[in-house]
Predict the structure.
Amino acid sequence: MFKRMFKPMHAAVATATIVLGLAVAAPAWSQTKVTIGLIGTNESQIPILLAIDQGYFKAENLVVEPMQFRGGGVAVQALVGGSIDLAAFATDHVLRLSNRGIDPRILIGIDRFLSHTLVVPVGKGYKALADLKGKTLGVSAPGSYSDNTLRWALNGLGINPDRDVTIVGIGSGNTALAGLESGQVDAVMAATPDLLGYQIDAPGKFEVLYDWRKTEHSGQAVIGLQKWVDAHPDAARGVARAVLKAEQRIQTDPAAVEKIVRQQYPDRSDAFIKAMTAVVPRLISPDGHVSEQGYAKMTEMLRSTEPDLKPVDKKNVDLTDRLLGRDG
């Protein structure tokens, strides 16, 4: 068939065309596949998903495969076990893993602040966190980001989280809302997507008793192990650059953000999608930088609930500036 398509006099042209085609295709052969674990559904996933959607990873010669996990603990096991390369989860795990003799590294930061509020029914007369002494408080799960935040705050007020209140794992979203409406819990820790859902779906029924979303915190980040970075230095730099581009795009392009929010929440109302899209830029870091203050706050909070953990110097675990070429 090949001979019928090309006359002998065209052989040189055909050969050149084939070689050129191979040269164009060659970069695809050298692409690095990277699996990134994502936890639940929240704003911290948006830079990853947007970087995929906009082709930022592809431009770095990476093929990124996101893998969903129901909780950070499961994702940690997958990361340490090698079934995923990286994960976007709480920086708390950097401290925990380091204390276990494992070498986690922050490739780039995602959050800037704590992401939770404490929501109570309207009309109960609660004025401050201290008013909840003796009450039942809902968190997503024991040992979760919401659980640690609540325990740290209670400890700071001199309220023993194990004796003075009852803290129960109640999940998030509609499950937590049902617990609050039924009186199973008196208050619930709600991340921004859940809070927006409560405000839109049940207007006037709930109020924010305490809002931690202006408290600087290292939050969630793209995290990997040093051995993976050593084995894939170009991929590590590429991931950091691609996520940074996505974070910057989030600050300037609401339509791009809305597209990802709609993918994350396909069954939610337009009102929710618009509200979530509007708030995302305030939650996501514009430069991928993990601040000293935010990292110190994470350490303080985690050690208030896990005092046996030893502090870990940020400069020993945060590779962001080195990967982005910003370290001098």
Observations:
- The radius of gyration is 23 Å.
- The mean pLDDT is 90.
- Residues 116-211 form a domain with the D-Maltodextrin-Binding Protein; domain 2 fold (CATH 3.40.190.10).
